Write a sequence for this structure.
């Protein structure tokens, strides 16, 4: 029986790996080239910042709505498929819209796209049960896919191209999002347990009234306000530093290779050794150092070397934070809690960072902007040392008998026997 459960777990991990592969392969063209495309279409720094801020504002309301429906229906697959397909369709409008119509496109795109990562994370972490440290190894498949896409772009894009030359790379986003929508139906329907009921709202409200949770949210938000600057303006920073389009792809390859290495080999031992708080703060410290470094004139080799800090600035913070949320979330409202957390970070945090960042960049320059981002993360690190406590595991998380029962009774389609 244990052998059957182990084989079932292995097949399940493969399906999760495929989902993360398709999910993050599509992120590569969006993160790497969308804002550069918009700039070459004539948008200014402040307009790009406004566009990013609009996406972030709609990311405040959209993820909790999808998360609530996912918990209420006790079904993760349908929301993932519908949201992914909607994101693919809306993304096509970027090729035709100009400012200010592009703001409407950004809003609709954020409505569909922003819940995808937290919904999949919620499902995977639910299924992992008490073995949440395995999340990093599974999530690393998404990073490998991101690397592969950036390598392809590096080999195929011209050194200095036009907006039109970026359209083939951006079009891969649409294809990959459609593929992800189809693959969603290969995933389990849910993470086991019971669907969310009206009484679970009380547990969610109690969590958000908890001072320890509020401190975690506040520090995450402060760090994300400045980190959103990186994602919005780093491609423009590299472009102005003389880095060509194809080499921008290689820059991301180096960054995500470091991310993969951290998730594959360091996540589990570090969480066991220094805890979630330690890994979380280690990542924020990496953000402070990396972003502050961009405030100075840097040589090409130094810019490349700084990309290795992506292992901390993304991998450490992301892995620790989503695991933290899953540990603290009410058992039957994990998707809602993950998406609420995502709405705080990707919604409020990114909206503030992108909008204010665009104004600062236009008036004071990108170097000043990144220096400020580093200082804000330094403040977040200090506050984290003072305010944060290692999250305690919820009672249902330590029930190994329950997780074993789920592993042996859940069928391959995701339905669970009672």
């Amino acid at each position: 029986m244990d052998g059957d459960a182990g084989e079932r777990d292995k097949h399940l991990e493969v399906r999760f790996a495929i989902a993360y592969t398709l999910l993050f392969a599509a992120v590569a063209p969006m993160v790497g080239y969308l804002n550069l495309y918009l700039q070459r279409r004539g948008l200014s720094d402040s307009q790009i910042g406004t566009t990013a801020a609009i996406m972030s504002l709609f990311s405040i309301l959209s993820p909790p709505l999808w998360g609530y429906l996912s918990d209420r229906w006790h079904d993760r697959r349908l929301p993932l498929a519908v949201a992914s397909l909607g994101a693919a369709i809306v993304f096509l409008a970027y090729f035709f819209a100009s400012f200010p119509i592009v703001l409407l496109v950004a809003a609709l795109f954020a409505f569909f796209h922003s819940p995808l990562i937290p919904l999949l994370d919620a499902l995977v972490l639910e299924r992992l049960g008490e073995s949440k440290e395995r999340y990093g190894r599974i999530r690393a498949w998404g990073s490998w896919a991101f690397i592969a896409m950036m390598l392809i772009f590096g080999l195929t894009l011209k050194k200095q191209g036009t907006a039109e030359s970026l359209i083939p790379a951006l079009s891969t986003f649409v294809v990959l999002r459609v593929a992800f929508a189809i693959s969603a139906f290969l995933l389990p329907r849910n993470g086991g347990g019971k669907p969310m009921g009206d009484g679970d709202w009380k547990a969610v409200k109690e969590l958000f009234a908890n001072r320890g949770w509020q401190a975690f949210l506040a520090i995450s938000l402060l760090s994300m306000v400045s980190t959103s600057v990186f994602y919005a303006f780093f491609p423009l920073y590299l472009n102005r530093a003389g880095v060509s389009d194809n080499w921008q792809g290689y820059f991301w390859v180096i960054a995500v290779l470091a991310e993969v290495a951290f998730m594959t080999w360091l996540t589990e031992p570090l969480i066991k050794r220094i805890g979630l708080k330690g890994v979380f703060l280690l990542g924020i410290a990496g953000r402070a150092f990396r972003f502050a470094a961009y405030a100075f004139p840097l040589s090409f080799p130094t810019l490349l070397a700084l990309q290795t800090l992506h292992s901390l600035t993304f991998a450490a913070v992301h892995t620790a934070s989503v695991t933290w949320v899953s540990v603290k979330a009410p058992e039957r409202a994990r998707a809602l809690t993950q998406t609420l957390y995502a709405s705080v970070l990707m919604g409020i945090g990114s909206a503030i960072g992108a909008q204010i960042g665009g104004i600062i960049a236009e008036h004071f320059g990108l170097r000043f902007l990144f220096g400020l981002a580093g200082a804000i993360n330094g403040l977040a690190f200090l506050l984290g040392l003072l305010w944060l406590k290692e999250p305690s595991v919820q009672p249902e998380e330590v029930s190994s008998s329950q997780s074993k029962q789920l592993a042996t009774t859940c069928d391959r389609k995701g339905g669970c026997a009672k």
